[in-house]
Amino acid sequence: MDSKNESHTHTHANTYTQAFVDMGFSRTHAEQALRHVGSNRVDAATEWLLTHPEEQPGPAAGAGAAAPGECMCGWVGVGIFKCVK
Prior knowledge:
The longest helix is centred in the first third of the chain and has 20 residues, at 3-22. This protein is 48% helix and 13% strand. Strands 1-2 form a two-stranded antiparallel sheet. The protein has one domain (3-55, 67-84): Helicase, Ruva Protein, domain 3, CATH 1.10.8. The chain has 3 helices and 2 strands. The protein is elongated, with a radius of gyration of 17 Å. By secondary structure, the chain is an alpha+beta fold.
């Protein structure tokens, strides 16, 4: 690949990465998706992001319990966000 095409592909990858970050995905996860499917396949990268949720770190010791009267919210599946008291 010549440097002009390489630069053009890199610019698209940065634009797509930023678009995914603007949608709420982490930069790392967005870059991983684009590498996995190819940086010029934004539709496939979107599908990959939605079907491969990013691993979330476990709760710290003593964390995880809501204070009285507060809700705990989180993703319980792809596209499913749930809050409980």
